[in-house]
Amino acid sequence: MSNTPEGLSTEAFATESTQSSRGRWTQHDTNWVLSLFGTAVGAGILFLPINIGIGGFWPLVIMAVLAFPMTYLAHRGLARFVLSSKHSDSDFTDVVEEHFGATAGRLISLLYFFSIFPILLIYGVGLTNTVDSFMVNQLDMASPPRILLSGLLVAGMIAIMMGGEKLLLRAFALLVYPLVGILLMLSLYLIPHWQAPVVATPDMAGLSETLWLSVPIIVFSFSHAAAISSFANAQRRHYANRATHKAEAILRNTSLMLIVFVLLFVFSCVLSLSPEQMLEAKEANVSVLSYLANVYDNPFIAMLGPLVAFIAITSSFLGHFLGARESFNGLLSKQSSLSANLIDKLGVGLMFIAIWVCAVMNPSILDMMGAISGPIIAMILFIMPTIAIFKVPALQKYRHHVGTYFILLVGILAVSALLFNMAG
Hints:
single chain, 424 residues, mainly alpha, Amino acid/polyamine transporter I
């Protein structure tokens, strides 16, 4: 029996409901902001203040100003790209094939998968190491068998993924609220320890090079590109013809939330340390919380370090697994006649085994894999959507927007800086 009001057709009722929710913020929107925030904030946040702040005061300020447009405009462009498909159920792999042809589409989709998958391997290792260290150093327990600990942790995270979108969004909410609270508390706690920054007249050549090499750090510290395809499709299912408008609103609020909380944490940490201390922390290859705990002899900060790392790795793992799972399913469905359900189970099983094996082996080549992922993500997040604006009729209305050229420039800078760092 229909639930639509008497005298109003189902189609008209749906249109009216969609229009009434046009400007109204809902719990659905909040849940997706938390999910995208959790995807962006990985364990790298503990190294972000050192990586950004070590360049000095002026690069820190300039990159802070550019962080919001870089983050919001890039992810908005990728979401618009996914939503530009003529088909309502297209994921990222479908859209690239639709716009760039079968061969180019599959190549881009394959690169997209291999840009995300190494990050999952890194998080599998990182989560195992974080929990093991916490059990040994903070809880005074014996180190558990690595094969058992890593298997339980990876299986637990994948179980959340298998529970569906509602369980996933609920998990993000449970993880992200404590993460935001801890970041804010630590930021405010450090304020009495702030030192006046060294503000010198910048050398333009040195400043330009520092800014150039810092672009990838900002890009990937705030990146939630792995979840954008699933996010865009969820908005299409939920909002129909209002999907683009709502997706942009959610992405804007996500970017604002990231900039406010993460940059407050970054500035608070940087202003609490001298340039010499930051250099010392970088050379020691320890997180900013570990270094601060040692400097201030504060066991409270030392306890929070593993907790922040655990929450950040877990939330970011879930978001990246979402993207890897979707891209794997899309690729295999075009290469085989297997059912969608079987392909999904096969993909989840293979990724679980690969992440588990990597976590057990605890390899030392993860930075190299991250460097390989970096240029690919930059090309997919910045350059490919910009190219699509000049190729796809549905996107050509954005051709003359200033943001289009800004994102293309940032993408070129990010890719060139990453390649320069790898060559060096």
